[in-house]
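Note on ligand handling. Small-molecule inputs were canonicalized before submission; formal charges were left as drawn, and no protonation-state enumeration was performed. Where a ligand contained multiple stereocentres, the stereochemistry in the source SMILES was retained. For pyridoxal-5'-phosphate, this procedure yielded the string shown in the input block below.
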Amino acid sequence: MLEITQTAADLLDQWSAEPRADTDWQLDVYSRFPVSLCRGEGARVWDVDGKAYWDFYGGHAVSILGHCHPLWAAVLAEQARRFDFYSNVSASSLRASACRVLVEMAPANLRRVFLSNSGAEANEVALKLARHHTGRPRIVAFEGGFHGRTLGALAVTWEPKYRAYAPPDYGHTRFVPWGEVPVLGDDVAAVILEPIQSLAGMRTAERAWLHALREACDRAGALLILDEVQTAWGRLGTNFAADYFEVRADLITGAKSAAGGFPVGVTLVDDALASKAKHGDQGSTFGGGPLACAALLVTQHVLRTQGLARRAQEIEVDLRALSPFPLRGVGALLGVELGRPVGPALTQLRAAGFLAGGSDDPTVLRLMPPLVTPPEATRALGAVLRTLYEQQP
Ligand SMILES: Cc1ncc(COP(=O)(O)O)c(C=O)c1O
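Structure output:
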């Protein structure tokens, strides 16, 4: 065993020493940080030159346990040795455990799960279920909303720059201004929204507005889909944003940090809808595979047993006290209102050893740190924000 572990390490070292850039082969579609990260531990990552960063970008809002959590790594390695993969054609008690854990932590009406591999897929599934259940074609979505890059999810995504490359068929989508309560016709299957529009600059829903949307859906016989790809799993201090905002959803979608750094998409489904699903209505080869379920189970286990949702609240309290700039958002999903273009600030932050993100609002910087981020990191970030604040814009 020792020998295999050593060979694996040697192979990984060899493959990590590739001199050419991935963009020499990969489609060059991503804008990037000017760093190449190769190692992580807890809330910190290191680049190939050995420079350390506090990861306030959280590996793209994914690494909720921090990087390379020892139990997460051990469970995945053990599962990889026991059974690598079989699809849903085989029953799996590991999958049953993963689904049970998800249902137990979900709001009471959401008793069923569909497992996939990404946020876009989780949303596609929710949109399909809503259309099937209601027999109606139209989806109401919100200006500023982002739901993914597959054609169905893209059709309810607002920002034209994401849709321009291959315009989806959004003839059935009606976009409504953020904060508005639309009058819903009897052709509306569902209303879909993110309770916090992260990419749009952490625009945060008002609780009363969400309740009014729920009532509008109930009046029209439409369903409410909460896209919780960024807000779920304790990041707001509660299991779901639905708990934080105290609003009932018919479908909740999640992905990103559901299983730490392992790709998992989750669609949580109200019992009434679930009872109508038949064999063949939906499927995914990889969804709910053994490694995915092991990663999901260990991630949720660590979140729960270490009470990490509480840390999300503490991170928010600390940063609100430390930041001289106004903050938007909730818990460990925060937008810093710089009031000036974020580009130079992101560069300064990187130089000082902090990763953070931009957004579609050019003046709002995004913070989505792991929930294991220690107070020393938030204090240090607060000091850099103070320096930025004191500089002339
Ligand atoms: C709110 C929201 N929904 C959906 C998605 C799409 O997720 P994925 O990239 O996993 O398909 C994202 C990705 O950033 C997101 O932020």
